[in-house]
Design brief:
Order of helices and strands of chain B: EEEEEEEEEEE
Oligomer: heterodimer
Largest interface: A-B, 25 and 27 residues
Radius of gyration of chain B: 13 Å
Structural class of chain B: mainly beta
Structural class of chain A: mainly beta
Mean pLDDT of chain B: 92
Strand content of chain B: over 45%
Number of helices of chain A: 0
Shape of chain A: globular
Helix content of chain B: under 10%
Number of strands of chain A: 12
Helix content of chain A: under 10%
Chain lengths: 112, 116
């Protein structure tokens, strides 16, 4: 079945460091891929998305490229800030059900 | 702000009791979803509605769980005869139908259930 695997956390970085959070997926067909973020005390919110192979999603300085050949959708940011501290979830959507399948989440802690 | 709202935000109950959660989606969103999230895990799909019709239920949703969306507006999720394993955050999300094929859901802040 469809599944998403993320790197385990927590990931602890200093401010302005480079961030990579790995995400790989297993799916039949051609899923859409997402990164959602959950800031402390807030609900999940969409960070970025890509709907087909080689698409790059970007938002708030974060980027992720849909790599079909490696079934990956790694999240990157060139220079993290303390305000980026949150839990990041990779997710895939397949078919027309609107059913998102999430990875287990990766906690990012950015220290000043 | 008229985002997705959930009530109550926190519920502590004793094993064997029934609990009900309510979700008010963003106005005019056709689809409404329920997910469950346990500590250190990603959200797990439970069920979803398109307007008032419940279109899919996860195998995670035992017969103690029931969800409704009368009139296609707010939704309720009831858990009967709660067990300690039901302790989790219950998330509600909604989306307009035109976004349904792209997976962009708008989540509430969740209802945390603790079963003693």
């Amino acid at each position: 079945g469809n599944s998403v695997t993320q790197m385990e956390g927590p990931v602890t970085l200093s401010e302005e460091a480079f961030l990579t959070i790995n995400c790989t997926y297993t799916a039949t067909g051609y899923p859409s891929l997402f990164w959602y973020v959950q800031y402390p005390g807030e609900g999940l919110q969409l960070l970025l998305k890509a709907t087909k192979a080689d698409d790059k999603g970007s938002n708030k300085g974060f980027e992720a490229t849909y790599r079909k050949e490696t079934t990956s959708f790694h999240l990157e940011k060139g220079s993290v800030q303390v305000s980026d501290s949150a839990v990041y979830f990779c997710a895939l959507y397949s078919g027309n059900t609107g059913k998102l399948i999430f990875g287990q989440g990766t906690t990012l802690q950015v220290k000043p | 702000d008229t985002g997705v709202s959930q009530d109550p935000r926190h519920k502590i109950t004793k094993r064997g009791q029934n609990v009900t959660f309510r979700c008010d989606p963003i106005s005019e969103h056709n689809r409404l979803y329920w997910y469950r999230q346990t500590l250190g895990q990603g959200p797990e799909f439970l069920t979803y509605f398109q307007n008032e019709a419940q279109l899919e239920k996860s195998r995670l949703l035992s017969d103690r769980f029931s969800a409704e969306r009368p009139k296609g507006s707010f939704s309720t999720l009831e858990i009967q005869r709660t067990e300690q394993g039901d302790s989790a955050m219950y998330l509600c999300a909604s989306s307009p139908l035109r976004e349904a094929t792209t997976g962009e859901l708008f989540f509430g802040e969740g209802s945390r259930l603790t079963v003693l």
